[in-house]
Amino acid sequence: MIRRNLTLFILSFALLFSSVLFAQHEHDAPPAEQDQQQDPHAQHKMPDMKHDNPASHFFMTQGAGTAVNPESSSMAMAMKKAGDWSLMVHGYAFLNVIEQSGPRGGDDVFSTNHLMLIGERQPNSDSSFLIRAMLSLEPGTIQDGQYPLLFQTGETADGEPIIDGQHPHDLFMELSAQYGYQVNPETLVHFYGGLRGDPALGPVAFPHRISAQELPQAALSHHLQDSTHIADMVFTGGIKYKQFRLEFSAFHGAEPDEDRWDLDPGAIDSWSTRFTYTPTENWAAQISTGRLKNPEELEPGDIQRTTSSVSHHRRLSDGFWASSIVWGWNHKILEDLDIHSYLFESVWQFRHVNYLTGRLEIVDKDELFGHGSELENGPEDIEDEVFNIKAFTFGYARDFDLIPGFQTGAGANMTFYSTPGELEPFYGDSPKGFFFYFRIRKGHGEH
């Protein structure tokens, strides 16, 4: 299995590498442009990107869908002009080794990865049109429909609910188009649509959040905060006035099915709205709510999801510091049940190549023993089957200059869990998780 996962990791890297090659131009760019491309925040200043266009600048702050990281944060991209189009490529691949303790812990070797392809065209100085495809080979690099992750729940594998595991992302994470138009110096309107996309609900999803870039494993609170980042038949309209933004979305509310290689179109039956405030380039805050129609395949009933978050990013002389605080609440309407989650995560890059990471989560879990089941000799009241889980993750990573134009690095993190006493027979008295990885992503050249 290790050999197969290593082969698939190499294939996912090959896809990333071959897609980036067409856009590489560091070696034939004039010296001034080379210096600009080596600036770790250069995506806002790349030649020919015309970010004096307010609609284009607005698009470049997005992390996924229309959700935004702080404007001062950067996303490493390769770029190339093709006529009136600006073509961009971004991506990463992680080769991961996970080991977990306790009776329900598991070990595995797998790859998490994604590739983002963007095309942008600016009809005039006040408008921009952008198409985006986000792809992942995780359906092939994660075995048995999940990788082990203690206390994680959500979606299905082999017809059964996933418990103590994380599902892979679909091959098609996003297939979308956007149009933005500057009405006046203080007002911008935008429209977003996709066969698959990210509606206006929640913060930037964890795979694209700047504060989580060195935490390859999913957040335990994913299905209470940002799991709609892969939704079908998404349509969003929004208006931005100064530092304020209001958006409305309509979409198909069901989670993706187990066939991770295709799309899952369905009726537009769910809605959401999000208010975003970006007071300065270093801060981004949002509050959002939405009604999801039967999101879980094996658990009937709608969910009202409400989230709020604050993200901060600060450039440093030798790196950056990024943090996020997220709250997510699911109200299960059929059961009249409230499930809460709280997350704090941070990454500090220093001396250009070192990363310290941390994530603290407090999450209610009501699906650890399957929907409607109960503990042996336990209470029958379903409210007593909601368990409050605390998880603290910290780690370190370091970049190594192995491939020009790419950030290659290795890292590790450890997670400690605190659980109610009645879970001890099932998880042990002190469950832990260990995560080791090798990572490669499109970089900015030399630091």
The helix content, as a percent range, equals 10-25%
Main sheet specs: 16 strands, antiparallel, barrel
Major sheet: arrangement of strands: 4-5-6-9-10-11-12-13-14-15-16-17-18-19-20-21
User: What is the general shape?
Assistant: globular
Strand-pairing-aware structural class: mainly beta
How confident overall, as mean pLDDT?
87
Give the termini distance in whole angstroms: 36 Å
Q: Rg, please?
A: 21 Å
SSE order in H/E notation?
HHHEEEEEEHEEEEHEEEEEEEEEEHE
Number of strands: 21
Strand content: over 45%
**Alpha plus pi helix count:** 6
Are there runs of 5+ residues with pLDDT below 50, and where?
Answer: 15-50
Sequence-ordered SSE layout with sheet pairings:
Elements: H1 2-21, H2 31-38, H3 54-60, E1 62-64, E2 67-68, E3 78-82, E4 85-100, E5 107-124, E6 127-135, H4 138-141, E7 147-157, E8 160-166, E9 172-184, E10 187-197, H5 222-225, E11 231-241, E12 244-252, E13 270-277, E14 283-292, E15 303-316, E16 319-332, E17 337-350, E18 354-365, E19 387-400, E20 406-418, H6 424-427, E21 432-442
Antiparallel strand pairs: 1-2, 3-4, 4-5, 4-21, 5-6, 6-9, 7-8, 9-10, 10-11, 11-12, 12-13, 13-14, 14-15, 15-16, 16-17, 17-18, 18-19, 19-20, 20-21
Quick structural overview:
With 447 residues, the chain is mainly beta. It has helices spanning 2-21, 31-38, 54-60, 138-141, 222-225, 424-427, and strands spanning 62-64, 67-68, 78-82, 85-100, 107-124, 127-135, 147-157, 160-166, 172-184, 187-197, 231-241, 244-252, 270-277, 283-292, 303-316, 319-332, 337-350, 354-365, 387-400, 406-418, 432-442. The strands form 3 sheets. A 16-stranded antiparallel beta barrel has the order 4-5-6-9-10-11-12-13-14-15-16-17-18-19-20-21. Strands 1-2 form a two-stranded antiparallel sheet.
